[in-house]
Description:
The chain is an alpha+beta fold. The protein has helices spanning 2-5, 8-16, 110-122, and strands at residues 20-26, 29-38, 43-44, 47-55, 66-69, 73-74, 88-89, 92-93, 95-97.
Amino acid sequence: MENELLPEIDLEFLQEKDFNYELIQFQAGVYLIIKDYEFPPCYAPQKANLLIILPAGYPNAKVDMFFTIPDIKLLNGNFPQAAAAHPTHNKVAWQQWSRHSEWRVGVDNLRSYFAAIKTELTKGL
């Protein structure tokens, strides 16, 4: 069933990273939930579930933003920049990280998207 939800290159990436993940199909795409994703030391807590919404048409459709449970905050107790909203996905309120990156159709995939997430998180903003 996973082969129907994600391209093989993405499944290989998830396995290579040894992520504990779940895929949930819904009308507008697929929820990819990475369990216990590790955050840099400038955040607390340093592990959270990470949600990425893969829209219908992925990988030809842009992946945008990511979401966490529980809330991740900076060490000073503040929310990171543009990360205080809590939209509901799959009947759960997730912390939304409003981070936008370029999406190159035919080039980008989960590997490049996770690299963009890591770059954003390393900024500690």
